[in-house]
Amino acid sequence: MSEENALIFPCQFPIKAMGRVDIELDLLVLEIIQKHASIVSPSAVRTRASKKGTYVSVTVTIEATSKQQLDAIYQELTAHPAVLAAL
């Protein structure tokens, strides 16, 4: 990774997860992230439905403290069957 692409911790970092609209994905994603991040404000959570309303994306902005923290969050999110993708 080049020097210009490196993150400097702590930093504000958005985590996005996508899944079907028929589950409460926002609550699931928030629950997973809160296992790894200290405080997540409700105002840090944004949801957006797809054009056809079949899928939903949830973006949660956290104060990331390390690459290991972000890796753990992404591993748990992508391992959950309700999460179709995480960015």
TrEMBL record:
Pfam families: DUF493. Belongs to the UPF0250 family. This is UPF0250 protein VZ94_18200.
